[in-house]
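Z., the sequence and structure:
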Amino acid sequence: MTMEIHQSAEDYLEAILMIKEKKGYVRSIDIANQLGVSKPSVSYATKRLRENGYISFNEDGMISLTDSGYEIADKIYTRHKVLTSIFKNLGVDEKIAAEDACKIEHDLDPSTFEAIRKYAEEHGLSE
């Protein structure tokens, strides 16, 4: 099942993965804080993500990625980390590097990203 997923959904899935790695658990409030959005926005988005099979909730309201949700989140987060690292290696301030990575991580064609990743690896620019 390949479904067209919007950038905002990718942002939510990526945020869930990042929070999970950092805290070990994910709550709606954590997502709201990470993305700078309101609790109602998170409720709406997580409802849609759950309906589409990307996340699940346990009995305590903790949020987990499903396999398909993790696959998307990991792809975007990997892009984010590689691009941020390259920009930092080019001398860009860390905060700006991360912001710029966010702006382009969703729009790069997979072949373009793969070429960038490979170049960065060969030139010692990625972490």
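The mean pLDDT is 91. The longest strand covers residues 55-57.

Let me know what you think.
H.
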